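Components:
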Amino acid sequence: MRKMLPIIAGVVLLIGLIKTVTPTSLYAGLFQGRVLADSLIGAGLGSVLTGNAATSYIIGGELMDKGIGLLPVTAFLVSWVTVGLVQLPAESVLGTRFAVLRNVTSFLLAIVVASVTVAIMGVL
Amino acid sequence: MKEQDKPGAQGKDSKVEWYFLALVAFTYVALYTFRPDLALDSLHESKNIFIKILPALGIIFVVMTLINYFVSKKTIKSYLGVSSGPKRWLIAIVSGVLSTGPIYAWYPLLNDLREKGLDYGFITTFLYNRAVKLPLLSLLIYYFSPLFTGVLLGVMIAVSVLQGLVFVQLERLGVLSGNEGG
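Structure:
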């Protein structure tokens, strides 16, 4: 725990920085109107951004209002809570290879989860 | 497993964590030079986050102390080990869903459990299920409908076990060893 304290302090300071310097109005402009590209952008955005999951629901809702599809928005929501680039230095205490592989697979799975969820929604 | 392969085994003299903190501090100093308002706002935001996570850190510290005193490697292996059967996946899912606080506060505890024999598959499924936020369900339902919420959570829980099983295999194949720790 003692060894983790400077890492936790650094991660918290990084999260504070990212939350302050990235305006939410910027996000919608990143999407291009193509499902695959937008899903990658959604998952990428969710991986980089961090904070309470409630914030991602609100941003996701705003993105939907601006015409972004359910698949990219779902990928964004899932990667927000399953991928953590900012937390990667802290997660590396469990092993760097594990941390990197877990985040990479979680990024890919965010798109899989979004695709399956939207497909099931289409059937129901 | 070699000593340097063990999670968290970066040697007593390692300063990596302090270099990381110094790098973040340097970023703040650089930002303050050009945009002092943004740097101060970021510090204020960070202070708020610190205050918010302090109770969770306290709880995790207590749990870690209790585990160190009362839970042996044998107990971990018999209840949560690969050979303990399907119930361990249920434990990983339920504990992941019920765990609170920021994810990074849980890493020291998971590292302790890892050193007591917990496998990467269990940790992976636990971490994935931290994405299921029970207190925030009403908000998710409000923005995205009850049906979407139910389907999404069901798919995520299923995928969490799938990812856990993949990491069990990756660990068996030795793909996850050879790391140098954080």
